[in-house]
Each structure stands twice: as structure tokens, then as C-alpha cells.
Design goal:
The protein contains 13 helices and 48 strands. The chain is mostly beta strands. It is about 10% helix and about 45% strand.
């Protein structure tokens, strides 16, 4: 951190209640900024003499990142109370090996991630930044601004902005190495980086190079006692060993009776309580990763009127996801006299052969363990280039113009898939002239497939049905931006007013080219899907003003106004939209400041939301026709029969214990833009009688119309059939057309769950932060004094209301304090991140406490074994030692008390819990060392 900026930043910390850790402060921090120094902070393009603005801003320093012991920035960012953990290293299915940020829980696509105030590299067609691609060792600090900021930065900033500010004018050599290991001896993560910088031409120029490497080992779910077995609700208030109804031995549904095959080809009754397949051990608990990141930046000041600057990044990120072997399900033709079958099994199938052709149609559910685990190897190769010029136009007028181009190419190789057509071909057998069992159709080298018992598929048959697929995605973004600023436009006697205006052009394009087998729908294993190709461009004019109105008057120590406006023209159906914001800062006396902000923000649909093809999905949902309610409610019974459920299947578990329903998701080119209205008011207290005490309290309220999302399979089912609360009366029976059923098994297959403009979202809450420090008159290692600092930072969630189906208000979900099939990740009403730090001389010792209040299940239609997750506490401990001016090291523990995650059954997300929210690894240790010359 540059010294002059450090003084300004830390001097403002007490006033603003920022999240800068207390250990970064020094004894002379309270001095005000000197001279005419000005800085630009996230949320504005206007340079100001301080950090104060009408929207709350949190700042995380590079030192706090280092003390966290977590080499990727995702973990420390997701610990902030304003964020709901999104996709992380613990996300295996769904996952993808990426890490994203989700302010307020509004969705990662509504949080704009910037690097040095500019858009960065998207990892997919949702235009979301993977935090793995941000150069952690180059970060000076992170600024988090909540509330709609579309008027300043454009689309995607509905929830707010996370801006990673990188080091500037670095001169010298800095190298760091970090290693983290779980107490269980697994999950080792090694990270090392090198920073080289050199000033030249008397400080007018600088060139900086940065290289970063990380290797993270995978951890299987089998490595933890609480994740190695899939749990399910036992129906009696407890948890039992559960799993999938698609089993290695093959489950068969015939004439509404469930069977399983034994290894000798004979049949026995299937029991979901004892025969379900435990798919947990094969899944990753921590996704392995290898990443190399190179970054370079340079600038040269020709004169006051021209500074040229450029930067570039190259990232190659390799991750792997692993799932249990492919579950093959469907209606197939079985040879009634196959030699793979016992005589009793042959007789049973022959009795069901109604047309006498020697083949019987049956529904089979086979786990293809002989083919091996499903593996997804993903390699993301991304680069970003930027060139720009800035300088003084005349007087206080300045300009800044730049162009960026970013491109991400993702190559995914999938192993463990099988071909549906080849499975069906290999199952339809006959006998040749010599009495050998062969395929009826011998093309492609067909080998008979013995699915009638666990382990019976031969290597030759496994090779015949296996498919390795390769999918390629390419995402590009171009941005051209010109901004004109003046931070001393005029002065009303309270300080200089500032203005900024300019133009921006942005072009987004994405393509997804799935393997031909995946696109054809012939692949079973990883979800099949259609290709994607599309994009859009937007042309924008933006303006911003900041005006100090009054100062140093009775009852008006300070009164400032700010406003922003942006006009955007999209090439899509969004067309012309406007966004704006306005805010006030009022301090009647020096000790207390009030602030308020109103923002109108817009988010245009992403490339994926507009143009993605249809693909398979398997969300958790309950089909009421497969529950006992279908036999006790005449209304529900009639609805189920009308939708295609057979009378013999009604009220039985015809899903075989599985809690997932096959669905189809995809884009919608007719989507309209989201619009949001956010307002907030707050107070900042820094009493003069307690100069080391500060308190900030801010209320926020956000309403999003035309919220873009899928309705959700569970909500479509409720719309069609109703729920227990309304006596199983359909809310809108037209939604039943989105729930096609298999005519043989009665299961819902291919529920249509496409993107749409839903009924909207409303959320409100209170952010607060308290900072206090106590000077100590003793020290260590030659220091004569020290400091004990306290910080309490938190968010109190008041409301989070989502209407997933615009036409049915009765399906509104209140997610505050809830988790589950409708709300997803836990939305705790109270989230805290507290820290106690002791500093003396070269020693910094910190204790961090993270708290999540209890949450309840959101599904009123089902009573689960775990209806409530208790409050959750985690503690981290870190010690940093600045041994010399050139060498420092730190050690620490994450999850110091080895807190286990809450364990759930049918209402879990994955790994029997919510692994992005609750720690699934247990106690972990880290060590970090750094040298600087």
C-alpha cells in the first residue's frame, strides 16, 4: 500500500466504520489527509479528498487477506456479512470449479466484480467473474459497495460492486509462499507468487510483472464420517442411510412392481430403505485445482497531459469435478429368454410380453459402475488486454480513455458417459446359429450388455457403451470507455464540486459448442444440452456530480449532495433504458453523520439467459403423486390421474427413493431487463469523547422487478397440484403441461423450467459495524506499547421475499431465516464477522469469529427430519511476525474448534449439508512466508 494512500485510508476508517482491520492502523492514523491529495473510490469516478460517500463501503486490506490463510480470495470475501456464499471449492454438483461472489444473496450475476474500477474476465456466458482469476498477491485492498450502482458502472451492479484495487508503482521484488492443510491430513493447498516492479525515468514510468501458481488437492466425501454416506429422512424423525434408486444391480419397474436383480440374474423385491445406492463416496468434497496466472502492467507519464498505460493478464485454470457412475434410466426392450437371466426372471418377462415378439418393455434404473466415475476435466484459458491514456485537458479538467478485450476459452472433457442408443442396442439380444447370445443389431461392434446384477457388465460391453465427450465455450467482452472529470468545478463555500461524464461501448458474445453426442441427447451421465451462440452490444452515456452544499455552520458541519445518471441503448429487446441515483451526506456536528442514497438500477439479460439452448437438470423436488397424500386427498388423486399417473402407482414411491426430478432448463430470447429500486439511510458515530470508537448503522431496501430466474421445478409442481395448505387445489392447472410423465413409470420426465421474468424480489436489512481500540503501555520484542482492537461487523436480514411465478402470488417465498428447495443457501437473519487484534512491535495476533444465526426449512408442504439448522460459530486464529524489514511470516488455524457442519437428509444441497455456507473440512492449519527487496 502506498504510504500517502495508507494515511488517507486509515484516517477515514474511524469515521466511516470501514472493514479495514484494526491491526493495519498506526498511532498517527488519525491525522487528516494533507494538502490537495485526492483519491477515487469505488462507487464514483470523481476524485475526492476523503473516502466518505452516501453508500456504505467496506474495505478489506491485503494484510487481512494474508492473515486469513486462504490463498484464493473467495473465502475472505465470502466471509463478509453482506455476502451469501455462492459457488466455492466445496461445490462439486452443482459446481464447475469456480468461485463467485453474491452480494445480498441476489445472485452472482447481480454483483459486478471490477479490477481497478474496470470490468474483468468473465468465466461463462452469464458474464460472472471467477474470483480464482483475480491476482491475489497483487491486491492492495478490496472495496465492497452495496446498493445499486448501475448509474456509475452499468448493467450487473444491482446488488453492488466488489472492486479489487491492485498495487501501483511497485518497485522491487516480493515473493510469497503459502501452504494450507486440513487436520485430517488432506486437502493440501500450495500457493506461491512473485511480484517484480521497477520505476524508471525519474519515477515517471513503471513496469510491474506478477506470476502466481496454485495447486489444490481434491478431497473425496469418503474422507469424512459425516459425508461418506448419503443420508435421507427415515420418516420417523431421524436420518438413515439413503441414496439413489438407480443401483448397480439394476432396479426394474414392471407392472407397477419394483424389482432388483441379483448377480445370478434372478429377481427379488426392491426396498428403497435398504437397496438405495450410496453415491456419496465418489463425489468431491473439495474440488482439485491447478492455476497459473501471469499479469503485467506498465505506465509512462509523458507530461501532465498524457499518460499511457497498459496491462494484460493470462490465466490457465484447471479443475476437476467427480460424480458417482452414470445413472441410466428409461424404458428399454429386454430379451425375455436372455441367457443373462434366471429361469424365473425369464418367465416373469415372458408373461409381460403382450405381443409375443420375444421382448418386453420395462423401466430400468442401472448405475453403470463398471464404466467408472463420471469425471469432468475443465480447462479455462483466459486473457485480458487493456490500453489507455489519461491526463489533464486544461485546468482541472482531466480525461481517461481505455479499451479492454477479454476472452475465455473453456474446454471440458467428460469421462464416464454412456450412449443411450448403444445401451438399448446392446440390451436387445438374440441367439446366433451357434446358440451364442448376440446383439440383434451387430453394427458398430455391438457387445451384449448384462445389466442383470451388480458387476456383470463385461469390459468389452463397457467399452462399447462408453462415450468421452468434449465441449468448448468461448466468451468475449470488449469495452471502450472515455471519461471526462473535474474535481474542482466550482465551490459554494463548502468545498469543491466535482463532475464526471463520458461514453462507454460494450460488446458481449458467448458460444457453447457441446459434443455432438451431448447435443443429440444420446449421452447419459453428464446432462445433455443444446449449443449456444449469441451476443449483444450496448452504447451508454453516463454522468455524475458531487456538490458540497454547506459546511462549518451551526447545526451543519457538512452537507454534501451526489447524483448520477446513465442512458443505455441495447441491441436486444431491452432497447433504451435509464438509470440514476442521488444521495446526501449530512453531519450536524463533527461527531455524527447521516447519509442516504436512492438508486434506480437495471440489469440486462446475460448472453446465457437469452440464448442458451435447452439442457438437462436434476433439481430436488417432491412429486405429491408419489406420496401418501395422493391417496388421502380426492382432489390431489384426481389431479394425478388426470396428469397421467396410473391408478396402481398412485401414492407409491415410484421414484425408488430418489429425491431429484429430471428437468429441462434453457434461455429465453424474449426476456426483458430487470429494474431495481434501492434506497438506504445510515448514521456514522465517531464521538469526540471516545476518539478510538466508531459505529456505523445502515438500513437498505431493494426491490427488483422482472427478476430473471427459473420458476423452479418444485414451484411448477405446486402450481399444478397445489399443496397441503390449500387442500391440494391447483393454483393454475395450465402449469401441468410443463410436467410430462413417463407413460410406463408415471415419473415426471423433462419438467420444463426455462428462464423467465418472474414476479420479482424484495429484500431489506441493516448493516452495522463497531470499531474500538485500546492503547496498551506494554509491548514485546523491544516495543514499549501495543494496541488491542475490537471489531464487530454484521448484517441483520429483515426480509427476503421472492415470487417465483409472476401470475401466482400465493407461491411467494419469504426466505429471511430460511433455507431449502425454494430459497437455496441459508439466508441467516443475523450474520457476524468479528475480530480481536493485538498488535505490538513486529507481532500481530488476531482472533476472528464468524456467526450465522439459525435457519428453518422453507418447504411448508413437507416435514423433514431437520427442520431447523442451529446457529453456527467458527473461530480462526492467526499470528503474523514481521521478522525484519524484508521478511515476514505467519501461521494460523481456520475452524480452531473443529466445528462440524449441520447434517441433513432430504433437504440437503450436497454432501449432506450446504458446503459453501458451513465448513465441511474441519480444523485446518496454514503457514505463510514472504520476502521483499
Amino acid at each position: 500500500m502506498r504510504p500517502s494512500f495508507q494515511r488517507r485510508l486509515l484516517a477515514s476508517t474511524l469515521l466511516l466504520g470501514l472493514s479495514t482491520p484494526a491491526f493495519a492502523q498506526t498511532a498517527d492514523n488519525a491525522d487528516a489527509p494533507a494538502g490537495d491529495e485526492t483519491i477515487v473510490v469505488t462507487g464514483s469516478r470523481i476524485a475526492r479528498p476523503d473516502l466518505q460517500q452516501a453508500s456504505p463501503i467496506s474495505i478489506v486490506s491485503s494484510q487481512e487477506l494474508k492473515l486469513s490463510g486462504k490463498p484464493n480470495v473467495e473465502a475472505i470475501i465470502n466471509d463478509l456479512p453482506q455476502l451469501i456464499p455462492s459457488t466455492t471449492a466445496a461445490s462439486n454438483n452443482p459446481g464447475g470449479g469456480v468461485s463467485t461472489a453474491d452480494l445480498r444473496g441476489l445472485g452472482a450475476q447481480r454483483t459486478l466484480v471490477l479490477v481497478d474500477g474496470r470490468r474483468y474476465v468473465s468465466y461463462d456466458s452469464n458474464q460472472v467473474v471467477d474470483l480464482n482469476t483475480v491476482p491475489a498477491g497483487l491486491i492492495d485492498h478490496v472495496e465492497v459497495v452495496s446498493g445499486g450502482r448501475s448509474a456509475v458502472y452499468g448493467s450487473d451492479a444491482i446488488a453492488g460492486v466488489i472492486n479489487f484495487v491492485l498495487k501501483k508503482n511497485f518497485s522491487g521484488v516480493e515473493a510469497n509462499a503459502n501452504y494450507r492443510l486440513n487436520e485430517a491430513g488432506d486437502g493440501g493447498t500450495f500457493n506461491t507468487n512473485l511480484l517484480l516492479g521497477q520505476n524508471f525515468a525519474g519515477g515517471r514510468g513503471n513496469i510491474t510483472f506478477y506470476a502466481d501458481y496454485i495447486k489444490r488437492d481434491g478431497v473425496d466425501q469418503s474422507a469424512r464420517s459425516y459425508t461418506k454416506q448419503t443420508y435421507t429422512d427415515d420418516g420417523e424423525g431421524g436420518l438413515a442411510a439413503g441414496g439413489s434408486g438407480t443401483i448397480p444391480a439394476t432396479r426394474m419397474a414392471l407392472n407397477n412392481t419394483q424389482y432388483k436383480f441379483n448377480q445370478d440374474g434372478s429377481l427379488s423385491s426392491y426396498n428403497s430403505a435398504t437397496d438405495a445406492y450410496n453415491y456419496a463416496p465418489s463425489n468431491y468434497l473439495q474440488v482439485p485445482q491447478k492455476r497459473i496466472l501471469l499479469s503485467a502492467q506498465a505506465h509512462f507519464d509523458f507530461n501532465d497531459h498524457l499518460t499511457l498505460y497498459a496491462e494484460g493478464q493470462f490465466i490457465r485454470n484447471k479443475v476437476r469435478n467427480k460424480l458417482a457412475p452414470t445413472p441410466f434410466t428409461g424404458t428399454v426392450e429386454l430379451d425375455t429368454d436372455s441367457s443373462f437371466l434366471s429361469s424365473d426372471a425369464q418367465a416373469l418377462l415372458a408373461a409381460a410380453d403382450t405381443d409375443g415378439d420375444g421382448y418386453t418393455s420395462a423401466n430400468v434404473y442401472r448405475r453403470m459402475t463398471e464404466v467408472g466415475d463420471r469425471i469432468s476435466d475443465v480447462t479455462n484459458t483466459a486473457f485480458r488486454t487493456m490500453i489507455g491514456a489519461k491526463g489533464q485537458i486544461s485546468g482541472d479538467w482531466n480525461y481517461d480513455a481505455y479499451y479492454t478485450y477479454a476472452r475465455t476459452r473453456q474446454v471440458e472433457k467428460q469421462y464416464g458417459n454412456v450412449s443411450r442408443s448403444r445401451v438399448e442396442q446392446a440390451l436387445k439380444t438374440t441367439y446366433d446359429a451357434d446358440g451364442n447370445l448376440v446383439c440383434s443389431d451387430t453394427s458398430n461392434g455391438c457387445v451384449p450388455l448384462n445389466i442383470f446384477g451388480e458387476g456383470n457388465i463385461s469390459d468389452e460391453a463397457a467399452d462399447f457403451i462408453s462415450i468421452t465427450t468434449r465441449n468448448v465455450s468461448i466468451i468475449t467482452e470488449q469495452v471502450a470507455n472515455v471519461a471526462i472529470t473535474n474535481s474542482n468545478l466550482f465551490d459554494l463555500g463548502a468545498g469543491p464540486a466535482g463532475i464526471a461524464f463520458g461514453f462507454e461501448y460494450r460488446n458481449e458474445h458467448g458460444s457453447y459448442n457441446p459434443d455432438e453426442a451431448l447435443e443429440s441427447g444420446d449421452v447419459v451421465g453428464f446432462n445433455a444440452g443444446d449449443g449456444l451462440s449469441g451476443g449483444y452490444n450496448v452504447k451508454e452515456f453516463f454522468s455524475e456530480i458531487s456538490v458540497p452544499l454547506l459546511a462549518d455552520m451551526p447545526l451543519v458541519h457538512k452537507l454534501d449532495f451526489n447524483g448520477a445518471y446513465r442512458f443505455s441503448h441495447y441491441s436486444t429487446a431491452t432497447k433504451n433504458v435509464s438509470t440514476f441515483s442521488a444521495g446526501l451526506i449530512y453531519a450536524p456536528v463533527k461527531d455524527i453523520t447521516f447519509r442516504g442514497q436512492y438508486s434506480r438500477a437495471v440489469r440486462a439479460p446475460s448472453v446465457s439467459e437469452l440464448y442458451s439452448g435447452q439442457s438437462q437438470d436434476y433439481p430436488t423436488a417432491t412429486d405429491p403423486c408419489a406420496t401418501s397424500a395422493a391417496t388421502t386427498s380426492s382432489t390431489l388423486s384426481a389431479s394425478c390421474l388426470a396428469s397421467g399417473v396410473s391408478s396402481s402407482a398412485l401414492g407409491t414411491d415410484f421414484y425408488g427413493g430418489s429425491s431429484q426430478i429430471e428437468s429441462v432448463t434453457g434461455g429465453n430470447p424474449d426476456l426483458r431487463e430487470e429494474t431495481s429500486n434501492t434506497w438506504g439511510v445510515g448514521v456514522i458515530l465517531q464521538p469526540s469523547f471516545a476518539p478510538r470508537l466508531s459505529l456505523t448503522v445502515d438500513y437498505y431496501n431493494t426491490k427488483i422487478d422482472n427478476y430473471i430466474s427459473t420458476a423452479g421445478t418444485a414451484n411448477i409442481i405446486r402450481a399444478c397440484y397445489g399443496d397441503e395448505a390449500n387442500g391440494w387445489t391447483p393454483y393454475d392447472s395450465s402449469y401441468c403441461s410443463l410436467l410430462p410423465r413417463n407413460s410406463t413409470s408415471s415419473e415426471i420426465e423433462g419438467a420444463v423450467n426455462l428462464q423467465s421474468n418472474t414476479g420479482g424480489l424484495k429484500t431489506s436489512g441493516i448493516d452495522f459495524e463497531l470499531n474500538y481500540s485500546v492503547p496498551l503501555n506494554f509491548g514485546v520484542f523491544g516495543a514499549k506499547s501495543g494496541k488491542l482492537a475490537f471489531r464487530v461487523a454484521g448484517t441483520r436480514l429483515i426480509a427476503f421475499d421472492l415470487n417465483p411465478v409472476a401470475a401466482i402470488s400465493a407461491l411467494n417465498q419469504n426466505c429471511a431465516g430460511k433455507f431449502g428447495v425454494n430459497c437455496g443457501d441459508p439466508y441467516s437473519k443475523l450474520r457476524l464477522n468479528n475480530r480481536i487484534t493485538w498488535t505490538s512491535g513486529p507481532i500481530t495476533l488476531g482472533l476472528t469469529h464468524r456467526y450465522l444465526s439459525s435457519v428453518r426449512d422453507d418447504d411448508d408442504t413437507t416435514t423433514y427430519t431437520v427442520e431447523k439448522i442451529k446457529a453456527y460459530n467458527l473461530f480462526d486464529l492467526a499470528l503474523q511476525v514481521q521478522a525484519t524489514d524484508n521478511f515476514s511470516w505467519s501461521i494460523g488455524m481456520n475452524n480452531a474448534f473443529n466445528k462440524k457442519p449441520p447434517i441433513l437428509g432430504d433437504n440437503q444441497q450436497q454432501s449432506n449439508t450446504y458446503p459453501s455456507t458451513y465448513d465441511v473440512y474441519g480444523r485446518a492449519f496454514f503457514v505463510n512466508a514472504g520476502v521483499k527487496f
